Amino acid sequence: MSERNGEVRIGVYICHCGVNIAATVDVRAVAEYAATLPGVVVARDYKYMCSDPGQEMIQQDIRDHQLNRVVVAACSPSLHERTFRNAVERAGLNPFFFQMVNIREHDSWVHSDREAATEKAKDLVRAAVMRVYFHKPLERRRVPVNPDVLVVGGGIAGIHAALTVANSGKRVYLVEREPTIGGHMAQFDKTFPTLDCAACILTPKMSAVKEHPNITLWTYSEVVSVDGSVGDYRVVVKRKPRYVREDLCVGCLQCIEACVFKEAKFDDEFNLGLSKRKPIYIPFPQATPKVVVIDPEACIQLRTGKCKKACLEACAERGAIDFEQKETYEEIHVGSIIIATGFQTFDPRRMPQYGYGKYPNVYTTLEVERLVNASGPTGGQVVTRDGRVPESVGIILCVGSRDERTNRWCSRVCCMTSLKLAHLIKEHTGAEVFIFYIDMRAAGKGYEEFYQRVLNEGVHFVRGRVAEITDWAMDPSEEGKLIARVEDTNTGFVRRIPLDMVVLAVGLEPQFDALNVQRLFGIGCSMDGFFLERHPKLAPSPTYTDGIFIAGVCQGPKDIPDSVMQAGYAAAEAIALADTGFFELEPNTAYIIAEECSGCKTCIPLCPYQAITFNEEKKKAFVNEVLCKGCGTCVAACPSGSIKQNLFEDEEIFSEIEGVLAYA
Amino acid sequence: MPDKPKVAFYWCASCGGCEESIVDLAEDILEVAQAVDIVFWPVALDFKRKDVEAMPDGSILATMVNGSIRTSEQEEMAHLLRRKSQILIAYGSCAHMGGVPSLANQFSREQILRYVYEEAPTVVNEQKVRPQPRHQYDGTALTLPEFRGLARSLDQVVEVDYYLPGCPPTPKLLKQAVLTLLSGELPPRGTVLAPDVALCDQCPRKETKPTDLQISEFKRPHWTQIDPEKCFLAQGVVCMGPATRSGCEAQCIQGNMPCTGCFGPTSRVRDQGAKILSALASPISAREPEEIEKILSGIPDPVGTFYRYSLAKSLLRAKVTR
């Protein structure tokens, strides 16, 4: 080997990571051990290798000791591999003469036995030393980046991201699966803690999207396939038939008036079934685009073909209604993608003790948002399903949050939402309002102040998780009421609190089809099912797939300001990528040695990126290195061992295995 | 003719097919015999071990040993011939990779002896007598070679210079090898004297392999009418061709039988069986465990299928029975 690559001179650096590593691993002992390994010229430990002095130490040693290989044992390569490669490169060495060893996540953080953890660190370092010996100089390749951006999801996060990118002069495709953009925010009445009306701040942004010359808005549409990679994603979008031509409809709504259904009798999704709509409808008056849609499940013409089609007559002049409309597919090319697909609320039927679906006067927070809204199903009158103005209302927190039986995470918005609704209900009805809580979480600008305000308004706070909601009255005062049975942990009593209306503060969950979206775009998700960011602190919007960013609640529960901030961040990343104009690819790609390839075609269908093609003339397979993401599938599968992968060549991997298994 | 280079042939745990392949040189054997002196070839010429022992070390130019190494005697002969020869060639799959005899490495020595001498359906052995390495008979000590725990390839016992692959190697490869040796232009030590590209490269059915191979059923060759024009894998018949070195000129394929892998893997592969496994696992069209199980039931003996000739040299090497 040394004949081929000259004399190998390795520097090994063991990071303390403060006490993250040093508390569990004897870093000094690991460095001393590393110094004894063949080829190692210098081995040191240092408090923070990633800091300036740490990087400078490596660079100095490269100069002083003519190092030509560097191993750093520290944290995860996903955090600092690039940092150290760059440091090595600045000292004049090819950055791929560097190997990183993870002795934090893989060692100190998961072990408590100091001696064993130290031995493990030595094993891992030895493996890296033996591997780096065989490293070759590699070049990063650049691929051009298409400046166009796809935004998936038209809630507040998607809207904000789309507008920000579009304002920078880039073309944006905004794809929303519902007939209108707006998302959950459009359903809210007011927003905490300032109580400005959601519609007043959202709808101007919605129309800005519609009017923006750089935004192509496709509602009632879904992404069905994603190919390619950073810089050049090829995306196919399915545009579902709304049976109304978007280019002709002006939103006059006369068709709705004319529909043969004189009474609206189908559940109105926007109002969560609290009101009814017709088969031809518009989700809400400010829907964007302001285009009606026909529900094929409800429409007589679409179901049976035997309707007198009054809507068609009403629209005869414009001819916007088209019962023959079929789904269409649009293919677009974009350089990056922002995913902002939002959330669903917890289905409280999963907690039958609260009687949702059984007692008509048990509501979810989202339903109450519609009830208190002036353009909601009751015109802003808070009345129960049996038509009474409630005199006492109980709001139960953490329904489907912070609960081992359902979702373990805190949904972050329910405390503030409940405080807001308590205030609004009191304002609308003068009812006594009880909030049943575990802990009140009011962290945020102006949030604690709002909490104090609601406290002073006389809302009752009962600390305890409600055991059940029942209609079983124990005395006449409870007749006709819902009773919350709860242990008030502040006083130590079990209480029975009669209520006219119960509101369940339902938590936020990943969308029902989040897993499909995750697979479609090739991104990861964390244990709870929310999409996985590249780093929880330092890269909370990029994903592990280059050129794909996530924003809003699809990444994890957050409120409107946080969603907007993350959306702006995602947009900034997409703009930066587009403005740079190129993306540097990792060189860990696969390549086929043509004279060794037998043309057996085993590799071709295995490539998840369609990077391998069969050359019919030469009867050999070829890897397109721009499309290759370095997953190694073809390398492992090639039955004649004729595919190699940079940074993962056999001798590198086998030496690493020998290194980790060798006994010191 | 004292100046002719000396050549020897020897057999260890083998079937005799490799010896046959030397005879298969037909008239070419005369050409070989003219060029060299065959100093030791137990199957054909009456030389004894003591004759070899009497030769000076390194006096044989090249010895071709076939068969895997299973007994103490074979071990001794391997060491002896190594010492006497300048070039030692592992001849045929068994010497090269352990061959079919090394499939016995799936069983312990005890299991093998018990089955062969006691349990096999054709055996009658009420006293359960087994061969013993030493036995006294009429005051004379009789000995037998010891049966070792594993069948090994030649290079797991002594250093080997070249390999001639195949079960058996083709006469063409043998002739080429002999001519190469005589030419004095030797390839790097450790070379397998056959092309280093997989068999598909030479396969007459190459065109008919689809790029999106889907396997919904594995058929054993005797279960099905094999289309003589179409890629075996496309017919659901396991063919080791993609994972096997070429050089055989696809003789089995031309006889309408799939490749069973006797030439072993290319130089770039450490484990032939693992390679064909990873190549065959992905095209299986089923996604549910039960369906996959059903498809895999078409390969009742995976080790015997994927490691037929290479178990001793594979990463698996043997099964440990405790």
Description:
- The complex is a heterodimer of chains A (664) and B (322).
- Chain A has 18 helices and 34 strands.
- Chain A has 664 residues and is of the alpha/beta class.
- In chain A, the strands form 12 sheets. Chain A has a 5-stranded parallel beta sheet, with helices on one face. A 5-stranded parallel beta sheet of chain A has the order 20-27-21-22-23. A 4-stranded parallel beta sheet of chain A has the order 2-1-3-4, sandwiched between helices.
- In chain A, helix 7 packs across helix 8 (198-211) and helix 12 (365-372) packs parallel to helix 13 (414-429).
- Chain B is an alpha/beta fold.
- Chain B contains 11 helices and 9 strands.
Spatial sequence of strands, sheet with the most strands of chain B: 2-1-3-5-9
Instruction: State the CATH architecture of the largest domain in chain B.
Output: 3-Layer(aba) Sandwich
CATH topology of the domain at 351-509 in chain A: FAD/NAD(P)-binding domain
**In whole angstroms, how far apart are the ends of chain B?**
57 Å
Helix content of chain B: 25-40%
CATH superfamily of the domain at 351-509 in chain A: FAD/NAD(P)-binding domain
